[in-house]
Amino acid sequence: MVPVLGALVGVVLAAGCGVVPDVLPLDDCTGADRRFAKKLDALTVLEIRPSGATLIPGGASHGCSDSTYFPYASRWYHTGISAEEVADFYHDALPAAGWKLRRADPIHAQQRVFFGARLCFTRPVDGVETYLSVGFLGALDAGPEDVLGSGPADVDLHVMADPEDGHVNNC
Question: Staple 74 to which of 121, 125, 139, 158, CB 3.0 to 4.6 Å?
């Protein structure tokens, strides 16, 4: 009985050191997924932003998606320019940084946020196809139409990958 209790205490104490999530995951996000999320969080592409754009307080995150458990990292910036100008910036800056445009939604001031407004790019990270979504969150309080609007835009850079089979339906 004492050796079993001692082993249980050892496991509980190890939890405070971050060992248990690698051994006994509480969800489908493995230790390898968490480590890959940290790699994604360190990507310099997440720091590429238009001049004057500022990181929103609490706007940096990484981990595993709640729904898919895929590793991700993201940054949410506020800019002083329109969504069209932000999209133009990323159309040029991300290919110059080695990211390939996969899909570009039309982005215009009267676009309803409900339907989404994103640019999607891909490139391998450590041999894993990684997806970068540039999303425009819009002004959800802009009225019943919830349109992007013509004023300053918020932009979300979100990178995601599936190190196990490489298939992510993020773009």
Answer: 158
* CA distance linking residue 153 with residue 140, whole number of Å: 12
CA angle 108, 146, 82 (to 5 degrees): 35
Phi, psi of 136, rounded to the nearest 5 degrees: -115, 115
Torsions phi, psi for 54 (to 5 deg) = -125, 145
* 129 in Cβ contact with 122 (< 8 Å): yes
pLDDT bracket for residue 66 (50, 70, 90) = confident
Read off the pTM.
Answer: 0.73
Q: Which residues contact 115 (CB under 8 A, 6 or more apart)?
A: none
